[in-house]
Amino acid sequence: MSMTTAQTEEDFSKAHNKAFFNEIQHFLSPEEARLLSLNDVKQLIKPKNETYIGMQTIAVDKVVGSEGRYNDFDNRFFPKNTHLRNRWQHVDEAAINSVVLPPIKVYELAGLYFVRDGNHRVSVAKARGTEFIDAEVVSLQSEVVLKRPNNLKDVIRQIINYEKRSFYAETGFGDITDYWCLDFSTTGSYDVIYNHILTHKYYLNLHKTEEVSMEEAITSWFESVYYPLAVTIQKKKLMKHFKKQTVSDLYVWIVRYWDDLKSKFGDENVSMDKAVTDFYNMNKIPLLRKLKNKTIGFILRKKIQQN
């Protein structure tokens, strides 16, 4: 065995072990150790156009995901599976011997890069601490700019923050209501709220001779729709059973559920309190069952990887 071969085997083993221990550390939340899928991020951001940029030298640190190999590497691009060994070691050997490899191919989205071709080269580059890599870039146009995320949850958090800033800036919601805690745990929710306000504005106008302003509609919706339901959610202590959600999340879910009930049984037969109680009973999942499901899921994933 040559010294180079021994070195590449050691390099792969170290990288593979890092991926393994990363997965162990995220035993209860395996999604946090998962490499970003381009498709998952595209579904969240919904880029508008695709533009060919061409050859660039990009920062390896900004390569955060993959188009098709996101199951083979962890969120730090360390190899999760041993079947990657041969290809990975060949790329590592080229790096050791200063052999110039073809540029990788990437999509740029929100200021970050997702590998189209060259996942092993990126993995080796990250393992060796390489700062820059040549890449052929195709840009997916988006107004959102993301800082380097650790996982999909981090991407979602950043997008939600962007949506909140946009909603508050475009509607003046905070200045009108003096309520700055309209927070969500899922993307797209501010569009839902905006549509709720527009619907509320429509019904207000049915009883007015003059057009209701957006400011009046926001004030009325907040005081007569959102806030009373938020108070009910707090009084019934629903939040202790939905610790990963916000009051505004529950508002959206309960209103949707309430609308479903009213369409089935008629408006006069379903009170808001009943909708809140039924919603809670329908969605409550015991903690032990959640833990059991996570444990079973982890064991199944390991068996699949071993096979």
Task: Give a description of the structure.
With 307 residues, this protein is an alpha/beta fold. It folds into two domains: 3-146, Conserved hypothetical protein from pyrococcus furiosus pfu- 392566-001, ParB domain (Alpha-Beta Complex), CATH 3.90.1530; 172-287, no CATH class. It has helices at 3-25, 38-45, 85-96, 119-127, 152-171, 173-177, 189-205, 214-235, 247-265, 272-283, 287-306, and strands spanning 36-37, 50-59, 63-66, 104-109, 112-117, 132-140. It has a six-stranded mixed sheet. Strand 4 (104-109) and strand 5 (112-117) form a beta hairpin. It starts with a helix and ends with a helix.
Which descriptors would you attach to this protein?
single chain; 307 residues; alpha/beta; Conserved hypothetical protein from pyrococcus furiosus pfu- 392566-001, ParB domain; 2 domains; 11 helices; 12% strand; elongated
Q: Topology, please?
A:
Elements: H1 3-25, E1 36-37, H2 38-45, E2 50-59, E3 63-66, H3 85-96, E4 104-109, E5 112-117, H4 119-127, E6 132-140, H5 152-171, H6 173-177, H7 189-205, H8 214-235, H9 247-265, H10 272-283, H11 287-306
Parallel strand pairs: 1-3, 3-5, 4-6
Antiparallel strand pairs: 2-6, 4-5
Helix pairs in contact: 1-3, 2-5, 3-4, 5-7, 7-8, 8-9, 9-10
